[in-house]
């Protein structure tokens, strides 16, 4: 026979309920035969809390008695809060969730009923809470106002000097720069004990400081010190001495400037062994060369290397010697250099001159190049004395005036001439 519990549900009163709408069903009406009833009551069923984990199963007639002790069966709360609680959960209910439970606040240790405790939590004056100003401190709720007013590092407090408000943890840092904060006079070691406001310090030193003051010309060397009135008298009475001190300072500065200019000039000297000479205002300079005799243009000096020979190019636009009035002449001069004592003499490096054709098409440009290897027997290539050679060595007929006009050697009234020294070559090419 199929257990009745599989066809009809059985409630806590031991009555059958319809599996469709849960309405109570009188099993006597379903099985009016007493023998059938006896058989049904003797059938084996599971506890109605089988799904909750109860493992009980026995005859149907014993179900009601089992439910009286089943730990999964719901009964009225022992504290009479009205809730139906499974026996197995009763202790937890009475301890944690029952509105009528008795519990102590963990902060103030006062006893409350369950519902009152829930209302008390979040309002207990003894509960530690974080400061609302986010200073990081935790204080009891009842002390938050006192903390915010007296102890919080983020509370606003006025600067005692300027009155502006800052947080407590920043007011000290502000005091180090506050314009109204008092500062000791720099002349306190000389006897001034004044504490002027920071923004009034200059005026104090200028108009009020009673300590000994240095002479305004102390940077020029005057060592006089005295009270403000004494310094003023000293300044009026010592004009001649002060002018002498200023003159001495001006002289020293002038010498320093000369030394600096010389150092800058040394740094600016070309030490690559090659010079590209830009000759501007060509037409005016050519006209001057044709009207005056011996007009010579000198290039900037340059070195063959950092510690090498010092050279200078010389240019006669209207020619010199064999090229006078018909050609442009170019020469190289050996100047007295700073490292001549360490160099080999006579000068033996090949020298080349290149006049650049400034044609718009580089492929069509035709530069003029002349070079030579020094003759060691010539005086021009020996170690120079304090005065350089008057003319130097080069090419009197470097390029004719007619050739200058035929091509673009002069463009926009500018000519470019390169002078290059090559220590690796012993044959001029």
Q: How many H/I helices?
A: 12
Query: Tell me about the biggest sheet?
Result: 5 strands, antiparallel
Rounded mean pLDDT score: 82
What share of the residues lie within helices?
A: 25-40%
Supply Rg. 57 Å
What would you call the structural class? Answer: alpha+beta
Give the uncertain stretches in residue-range form: 1-7
* Percent of residues in β-strands: 15-25%
The counted number of beta strands is 25
Describe this structure as you would to a colleague.
The strands form 9 sheets. Strands 16, 21, 22, 24 and 25 form a 5-stranded antiparallel sheet that branches. Strands 17, 18, 19, 20 and 23 form a 5-stranded antiparallel sheet that branches. It is elongated and about 160 Å long. By secondary structure, it is α+β, with helices and mostly antiparallel strands. The chain contains 12 helices and 25 strands. The protein has helices at 27-30, 34-41, 63-67, 90-97, 114-120, 144-151, 168-175, 201-208, 228-237, 239-268, 282-291, 401-406; strands at residues 9-10, 16-17, 24-25, 44-46, 57-59, 74-76, 84-86, 102-104, 111-113, 128-130, 138-140, 156-158, 165-167, 213-214, 225-226, 274-279, 297-298, 302-303, 310-316, 327-335, 350-355, 368-372, 393-400, 410-411, 414-422.
